[in-house]
Amino acid sequence: MIVLNIEQEAASDTLLPACKIDIDESQVKSIYSDVDLQAGLAGALQKNTDVTFFDYNEGLYERISVQDNIKFYHRWFGCKMPLPEVLVMFQLQNCTKKTLQRCSDSEICRVYYAKHYMRGAQLNVFQEPINRVDILTINTFINMVNQMMIEKRSVLLLVTSMEHALLLSDDAYHLHEQGLLQLEVDKETSEQEEAKTRPTSLTVEKLFKIPAKVGEKVILFDPTEIDYIESQEGKAFIIINNDSFALDLTLAEIEKKLELYGFYRCHRSYIVNLQKVREIITWSKNTYSLKINNKVQATIPLSRTKLQAIHEIFNLK
After folding, report:
1. Residue 203 to residue 129: CA distance in whole angstroms
2. If you compute the radius of gyration of the chain from its CA atoms, what whole number of angstroms results?
3. 9 near 40, Cβ under 8 Å?
4. How far lies 260's CA from each of 70, 206, 274, in Å?
5. DSSP string, 251-302
6. Cα–Cα dist 206/201, whole Å
7. For 142, phi and psi rounded to 5 degrees?
8. Which of 67, 148, 235, 245 suits a disulfide with 212, CB 3.0-4.6 Å?
9. Burial degree of 258 (CB within 10 A; 0-12, 13-18, 19+)
């Protein structure tokens, strides 16, 4: 086990709370926080000599091909995986001859993943590893993390999106001013039991308004306006595009009220407006997300035990 003790210190004008992070072999943990706290945590972690950071700023050789970049670092780090397997693992086999100057941002990101993987570090820290990349690249990152687990390497992920924290790890935490708090993650056995007893057919009754607080005001939302509802630290929030509004109800209470209006508990921490679902995304290791049809094209987690129910609701085969 590797124990990282983070002492209080000023970073990015934000006081980083003292916390302890225990990471075992073959373990992946994610820590969700705001940008300032993430910067402070990253700065503190970089002082630990046991930690190897994934770094976009280390640079690659832009004027040579993808294959030549991978070949150089393969030899430099003494990677034991055969070079062709590395290219396939990181979905680079179709762009081997392209120079990095001609590659897309996602292709370049996969080259960075490959470079870091070939380094063979024991404790790996990734900061925002899947921001602004395509689905293929996200899948590639998840596959790489799975391979690291097989090789008994450890991974710590620093993200500013709760959806990314839950997507990438079953051991997710929220870092805030008071310290680290573990996020609620689906327990498959309880979800399966719940799925057996909960009906999947949905009917619509008379409309009603959902009250949410904004400062001293109470705003009444029509259910059709709501993209989804998420739970953070036991509190429920209405999400509309990038805006969130606090509810006095718990997620379980609001679930009962909204179930008749086309909403579904797709994850322990999320209730989705099914009318807003545009796409079901399948990631690696039986991990799924729902893409929401809103201005920001948000994605939220879909529990693996709820996938069949979603298929039934949408009459998918």
Report:
1. 40
2. 21
3. yes
4. 54, 9, 11
5. HHHHHHHHGGGTEEEEETTEEEEGGGEEEEEE-STT-EEEEE-STT--EEEE
6. 17
7. -60, -40
8. 245
9. buried
Which has the closest alpha carbon to 6: 153, 125, 122? 125
Residue that has been written with the tokens 């570090």 in this structure: 121
Distances (CA, A) of 143 to 93, 201, 260: 16, 35, 38
Q: Which positions of the chain have pLDDT values less than 50?
A: 10-13, 188-191, 195-197, 202-205, 207
The backbone torsions φ and ψ at residue 251, rounded to the nearest 5 degrees and listed phi first, read -65, -40
Give the whole-angstrom CA distance, residue 308 versus residue 293: 21
Beta strands in the chain (DSSP E): 2-6, 9-11, 14-16, 19-23, 28-32, 51-53, 123-127, 154-159, 172-176, 179-182, 210-214, 217-221, 228-232, 235-240, 243-246, 263-267, 270-273, 277-282, 288-292, 299-302
Q: Which residues pair with 229 in a beta bridge?
A: 238, 271
CA distance 108 to 307: 32
Tell me 14's DSSP state: E
Q: In what order do the strands lie in the sheet with 217-221?
A: 217-221, 210-214, 243-246, 235-240, 228-232, 270-273, 263-267
User: Taking Cα atoms as reference points, which of 316, 291, 310, 2 lies closest to residue 155?
Assistant: 2
pLDDT digit string (tens) for 9-48? 544 445 677 778 887 777 899 999 999 889 888 888 888 8
CA distances from 198 to 59, 248, 257 (A): 52, 24, 15
**The two structure tokens encoding residue 10:** 């000023």
Please name the amino acid found at residue 151: E
Q: What angle is formed at CA 105 by the lines to CA 65 and CA 39, rounded to 5 degrees?
A: 120
Q: Which residue has the tokens 């941002």?
A: 105
Residue with tokens 């640079």: 59
Contact 123, 51 (CB under 8 A): yes
Q: Let me know if 189 is exposed, middle or buried by CB neighbors in 10 A (0-12, 13-18, 19+).
A: exposed
- C-alpha 137, offset from chain centre: 13
